[in-house]
């Protein structure tokens, strides 16, 4: 099998059910999801095995799910079913809730960084947000699986949560944005201040 096909030499690419221009918003959306998957793979290489065995397993699961999301975004035919599901979103919510408890309490905005692994996870978070914006644009002009947008929205929160946990487990403090007001207080705490 040859790696190159020459079929894209005129600026078109194959999607599931047809062909599109390579700069079509649908191609941008699934291409950015693929880019994100690559950054997740990079993050995996920076995490120590015993300390992050739970997160490593989750990131591998997420890589498969990002492939599913990319497939859904590349789908322009109604002949095939969508792969991204509500259960994928629920799993992320459960993990976010667990990691919020593990990380130190947060009151201010933080700068991306700390450890190298956390910094790469913050890159994953921002690429996720870009993919999400592209999916929003796509949904304005064409149909796609609505769960993908929901998944990406939750995934960026997951990356924020694990970046903080990674720093915490490594014993590295998050760097607070020095001009940040207190922004992450719960409603109960706000009521007590009044």
From TrEMBL:
Keywords: ATP-binding, Cobalamin biosynthesis, Nucleotide-binding, Transferase. Gene3D superfamilies: Cobalamin adenosyltransferase-like. InterPro entries: CblAdoTrfase-like, CblAdoTrfase-like_sf, PduO-typ. Transmembrane segments: none annotated. It comes from the Bacteria. It catalyses: 2 cob(II)yrinate a,c diamide + reduced [electron-transfer flavoprotein] + 2 ATP = 2 adenosylcob(III)yrinate a,c-diamide + 2 triphosphate + oxidized [electron-transfer flavoprotein] + 3 H(+); 2 cob(II)alamin + reduced [electron-transfer flavoprotein] + 2 ATP = 2 adenosylcob(III)alamin + 2 triphosphate + oxidized [electron-transfer flavoprotein] + 3 H(+). Pfam families: Cob_adeno_trans. Its EC number is 2.5.1.17. GO terms for molecular function: ATP binding; corrinoid adenosyltransferase activity. One of its GO terms (biological process) is cobalamin biosynthetic process. Residues 3-165 form the Cobalamin adenosyltransferase-like domain. It is an enzyme of class 2 (transferase). Pathway: Cofactor biosynthesis; adenosylcobalamin biosynthesis; adenosylcobalamin from cob(II)yrinate a,c-diamide: step 2/7. The keyword ATP-binding applies. Belongs to the Cob(I)alamin adenosyltransferase family. PANTHER family: CORRINOID ADENOSYLTRANSFERASE, CORRINOID ADENOSYLTRANSFERASE MMAB. Homotrimer. This is Corrinoid adenosyltransferase. It comes from Anaerobacillus isosaccharinicus.
